[in-house]
Specification:
By secondary structure, this protein is α/β, with parallel strands linked by helices. The protein is built from 6 helices and 17 strands.
Length: 234
């Protein structure tokens, strides 16, 4: 990847979603819900309570690959000249460095696809854990490179209340990030609205926008505790 002068700003695509059955909250957000039969099939497997950690890990990575391709669809590029065995032609190179920031632990399940697709990707880490009583995200670890001028992706499979995403993205902005996308496997409308209210510049890429949260702030229907299912810590 080489650095370029291409602007790394967010796109202005947006859609309207509604949350809840009675409380019709209308939110305007930059959200992309991937639509592909393979993504749906992988998500169904992840949702299934009978799926064990081995299959859960494999399918998280496969779905992560689809999300990675979608989340980088508008990656800035620069023109280059390529000489084929036949003729000169125009090609494209990635125009700025890519950094992914998984939110520990669950976000680790989405890192491998990025390492495979983008071998030069840098990986920063943010450790957050929800307080079991309040569901508020508490920071326990942070290791970030400078994020200025980079195309940054925050990886957290579950966007529930959005507290973790809001905190993680705040820390990424403190490290200089101005172009951040959020990549989740399942999002709740509450989390989408919360993230959007704090960071309206951040586009969200997800495989599903679910119904809402239960009284423990778990996503419904969701898939349960992602970190526990990924690492077999029940
Ligand atoms: C889970 C999940 C997210 C967070 C989402 O992490 O991985 O980081 O909850 O919830 P929120 O949107 O309400 O903040 P958890 O605290 O369970 O930690 P873990 O990943 O280590 O299991
Ligand atoms: N964290 C999870 O792992 N699952 C949820 O449904 C909510 C937060």
């Amino acid at each position: 990847m080489n650095s370029g002068t291409v602007h790394c700003g967010p796109s202005d695509e947006s859609i309207t979603t509604s949350a809840g059955q009675n409380d019709r909250i209308i939110i305007y957000v930059q959200i992309h819900i991937v639509s592909h039969p393979l993504a749906e099939s992988l998500l169904a497997s992840l949702r299934n309570a009978a799926t064990g950690p081995r299959e859960f890990r494999q399918n998280s990575e496969a779905l992560g690959t689809i999300l990675a391709l979608e989340a980088t669809r508008n990656f800035p590029v620069v023109a280059t000249t390529v000489t084929t065995p036949i003729a000169e032609t125009e090609g494209r190179n990635l125009a700025c460095p890519l950094v992914v920031v998984p939110v520990l632990r669950a976000g680790l399940g989405m890192v491998a696809p990025f390492l495979q697709l983008f071998p030069e990707v840098a990986v920063g880490y943010i450790g957050l854990e929800r307080n079991e009583q309040t569901a508020a995200a508490e920071t326990y670890y942070k290791k970030l490179p400078s994020l200025a001028g980079k195309f940054c992706l925050c990886l957290d499979p579950m966007l529930a209340t959005g507290g973790s995403a809001v905190r993680a993205i705040g820390l990424m902005k403190d490290a200089g990030a101005t172009n951040i996308k959020m990549v989740s496997i399942v999002a709740a409308p509450e989390g989408v609205a919360h993230l959007n209210s704090w960071h309206p510049d951040v586009e969200i890429f997800t495989a599903a926008l679910d119904e809402g949260l239960d009284d423990r702030k778990y996503i419904v229907p969701g898939l349960g505790d992602f970190g526990d299912r990924l690492f077999g810590t029940f």
